[in-house]
Design a protein that fits this description.
Elements lengths: L1 H15 L34 H12 L2 E3 L5 E3 L2 H4 L2 H13 L4 H12 L7 H20 L2 H30 L1
Antiparallel strand pairs: 1-2
């Protein structure tokens, strides 16, 4: 049931996000605008372009991720890691999403005052930031665990608000 719900949610959002308003992507994920030109990275990569892409993203997350001491994220499953979409996933996870608690709090703050529905790439990056934040919360203890957990909750609230945005606007 959870898989179906997640897939439906991601697909719905992917379709819904095509109707978003223009607002600078750099304000939410500045690293997406600073990808190295000399590297083989993709310009503004997006994982979800179809239902199959949503399923593949879910498979990446289920395949167990390795997060090394320098916080570099990789897919453990070699077959999945060899896919073209895995290279885009790597770029987003290691060059675009924020990793420090300060950057994640800054993202949460920006999301809380974001005036429009998120673009699908911003929604996707926020979900991946939540995954990373959940991992860090699980690996931390004491005050740090609380800080990471609070950041996770704030990102969750921002995504929930974003999904409800058209309904919130109608009730105002």
């Amino acid at each position: 049931m959870h898989l179906k719900t997640l897939l439906l949610l991601l697909f719905y959002y992917s379709v819904h996000a095509t109707m978003t308003y223009k607002w600078s992507r750099a304000m939410l994920f500045p690293a997406a605008q600073r990808l190295k030109r000399s590297s083989a990275t993709f310009l503004n990569p997006v994982l979800q372009n179809s239902l199959e892409d949503v399923v593949l993203l879910y498979e990446f997350l289920l395949a167990e991720l390795d997060i090394d001491k320098s916080q570099r994220i990789s897919i453990r499953d070699e077959e999945l890691a060899s896919l073209r979409k895995a290279a885009e996933f790597d770029t987003i996870c290691n060059e675009v999403i924020p990793k420090s608690i300060t950057e994640i709090r800054r993202l949460s703050s920006r999301l809380s005052s974001y005036p429009r529905v998120l673009k699908k790439e911003d929604f996707e990056r926020t979900v991946l930031t939540m995954v990373y934040t959940a991992y860090r919360a699980a690996q931390s203890q004491g005050h740090q665990k609380d800080t990471w957990a609070e950041s996770f909750v704030n990102l969750y609230k921002a995504l929930k608000h974003d999904l409800m945005f058209p309904y919130n606007k109608e009730s105002s």
